[in-house]
Design brief:
Blueprint lengths: L8 H13 L7 H4 E7 H5 L5 H15 E13 L3 E12 L12 E13 L2 E12 L4 E4 L7 E2 L2
Parallel strand pairs: 1-5
Antiparallel strand pairs: 2-3, 3-4, 4-5, 5-6, 6-7
Length: 150
């Protein structure tokens, strides 16, 4: 069995955003995340624990947002932490962040934060502002503050 070379923190974030989120490559999550990782956003919505939670998170995102276009604006990486500012546009075709599907295109600015252990995602936090019909702000570290701003 050939082992996959370890990715840098920057490469982990790039692979997650561009391959998993943008292209639906859920199979890569096994290569990117610890089995016992914590995905705060998934936990906020009572999803499964560990790596399976990140799969559920990414799968739900892809199911509810179609015509997705992702742009990575900036990545800042250290030895075991990495942050990305990224934006996306898509159509809201399923329930997401308490909003009902509209089929309309919207845009979102997000900040994703990974803490890594042995080169793999150990903890995932996300903060975002979605420009929906009713704009939404969400911070996975404080999910009770999900704000819809009218």
């Amino acid at each position: 069995m050939t082992s996959t070379p370890q990715r840098t923190p920057r490469q982990v974030m790039e692979a997650y955003l561009m391959e998993v989120v943008s292209n639906g490559r859920l199979d890569l999550i096994e290569e990117l995340a610890q089995p016992d990782m914590v995905d705060e956003a998934n936990q906020a919505f009572n999803g499964p624990p560990g790596r399976a939670g990140l799969v559920a998170h990414a799968k739900g995102f892809g199911r509810n947002i179609s015509d997705l276009s992702v742009t990575v604006d900036q990545i800042v990486a250290g030895e075991d932490e990495v942050m990305a500012k990224w934006t996306f546009t898509g159509k809201l075709n399923g329930p997401w962040l308490g909003q009902t599907p509209t089929g309309k295109e919207f845009s979102c600015t997000a900040f994703s934060f990974f803490r890594l252990r042995d080169g793999l995602i150990d903890h995932y936090r996300v903060w975002l502002h979605a420009n929906l019909d009713t704009p939404v702000v969400f911070d996975s570290a404080n999910p009770q503050t999900l704000l819809a701003r009218g």
